[in-house]
Every structure is written in C-alpha cells, then in structure tokens.
Amino acid sequence: MDILYKAEHLACPYYEQGERPVIEVAKMVIGEKKKLSVANNEIVCMIEGRMRFYFLEIRTYEAVKGEILFLPVGGNYSYEALTECMVVIFRVHKPIQFCENYSIEKLYGNNKFISPEDFDTLPQTVPAGILEINSRVWYFLDGVIDCITDGLKCRCWFDLKVKELFALFRVYYTKEALSCFFNTILSGDTAFSEYVRLNWRLYHSIDKLAESMNLTRKQFTKRFVKIFGELPNRWMIERKAQAVHKEITSTKKSFKQIAMENGFNSDTVFIRFCKKELGKTPTELREDAE
C-alpha cells in the first residue's frame, strides 16, 4: 500500500534517515556473518530462517523463526545466517516501561538472577534472553513489517510501536518469562551501566549524575571506570559528540534546535564543540552528509 503525502513525510524533521533506525526490518543471505556493537538494548524478532548468535563471549545460541532475542547494551555480539533470514530489530533508546504502571524494576524478585556463567546450565527450551513469538505479537509484527515496507519511517510512529511491543509483553507473557528474558539488565553492573546510558543526557555534570544514584563522585567514578573502562567525563563528551553528529547528518533539524536539545547555551559554544570533537563545523558536517 502506498503512503499518502510522501513528500511531506520526507521533508519532516522526524523522518528517519539514519542507518540504525529505532525499528528495522533486515534480511540476511545464507552464510552472512557480521559483528555487532550494540549501542542500545536491542530486541530481535526472528521472522524467517535460522541464525547462530555469539554473545556474552561464552555462549552461542541458534535462533529460529518464531523466537525473540534480547541483546543488552554494551555487548559485543556476532551472528551467522544459517539460512536466508528476516528479522525485525527494535532498538530501545529509553528506560524500559511495560505500561504507565509497570516498569522493568517491578520484575525484581520474579526470577533468580542468572549470571553469564550459569547460562549453559539452563534448559535450551527456555534460555535466558529468549521469548517465543505468540499469535498476538505475530499479528503486531506483520503490521510493522507491512508499514515499513510501504516506506513509513516516522520516528514518532517508531516510538509508539516500541511502546506497543512492551504493552504486549506485559499483557501476554508471564512475569517469570519476562524476568528471564530481561535478566541481564536486572543485575548490579548492567543495571548501573543501563541507568548511566539512559539518563546521562539529563544531567550536565558528573556530580549531578552521581547524586541521582545516591553515590559520591568518587564512588561513581570508581564504579564507572570499572564497567566502562574510561573516565565518565570523557565518555559523556564522546556520547554527546555521537548524538550531535547523528542529529546533524541524519535529520533536518535546525542547528539551533540541535544545540538546545543537547545542552549548549549558545551557538558559539555549539560550533566550538563540533570543531573540537568532530573536526568540522555543523554546516560542514551536514554538507558532507548531503
């Protein structure tokens, strides 16, 4: 089905033009191999085929049609397509919320935490990080695939569909199954890194971010370096540079809007940041992308 007023959609600043959209329909050929660096929590729905995933550095899993995999942020994964495959990928940029009244934190206690070393002891019928696609989710995924195939790439629509997916999880899956599925972000270090990744843009200093976690700056920095392998200030600058670069090169937002949304209090400061961290002015970066 053709979408109406296509020119208006293409001109909209919320039309997704990046290489890693919030929702992506991807196809793989037999034998395709690729390494994945996951910058956001990702939910991968197997629509067709069979793939071997290598994740958590100590485990492989052969995923087949009808399964959903959870890939936590920060991991280094890879896959090999054993047949021709189709997947739908949901990249989760916000804290996981099943509905307005049920956040992921409420899953604590529904399932014993499973460490990576314990993964191989789990029954392969229901491994950690895996769900089966039920009939309601299949219906939902069919609609998502059809709309994306039509050319619908609205970021607002993507956000609504991610919310709908989590609402379906809440309604049609047990708390025990969800707790097992999201197990890797219901533990200490991963919970810390998840909070940092999802909330760092809300705070303009390390002190404020540490305070929001009830930690001193020293405690926060020590734990941050242990998990991320670098100082928090440098990490935050690099994340901000990545976010700014993406906004400049893959959206049609004005530079003033991008600067304001990323915490810059003047155009001069914004331009200076781009030149220092990205090597070019915002205008030059956008011209290169075009």
List keywords for this structure.
single chain, alpha+beta, Arc Repressor Mutant, subunit A, 2 domains, five-stranded antiparallel beta sheet
Description:
The protein is an alpha+beta fold and 290 residues long. It has two domains: 6-185, Jelly Rolls (Sandwich), CATH 2.60.120.10; 188-289, Arc Repressor Mutant, subunit A (Orthogonal Bundle), CATH 1.10.10. 43% of the residues lie in helices and 20% in strands. The protein has eleven helices and eleven strands. It has a five-stranded antiparallel sheet. A four-stranded antiparallel sheet has the order 2-7-4-5, with no helix packed on it. The protein has a two-stranded antiparallel sheet with strand order 9-10. It is globular and about 55 Å long. The relative contact order is 0.12.
Percentage beta strand: 15-25%
Number of helices: 11
Q: Give me the count of strands.
A: 11
> Residue share in helices?
40-55%
Shape: globular
Fourth-tier CATH superfamily name of the largest domain: Jelly Rolls
Low-confidence stretches: 112-127
N- to C-terminal distance: 29 Å
Main beta sheet strand tally, sense and closure? 5 strands, antiparallel
In round numbers, the mean pLDDT is 85
Adjacency order of strands in the biggest sheet = 1-8-3-6-11
Integer-rounded radius of gyration = 20 Å
- State the CATH architecture of the largest domain: Sandwich
The CATH C-level name of the largest domain is Mainly Beta
Number of discrete domains: 2
Order of helices and strands: HEEEEEEEEEEEHHHHHHHHHH
The CATH topology of the largest domain is: Jelly Rolls
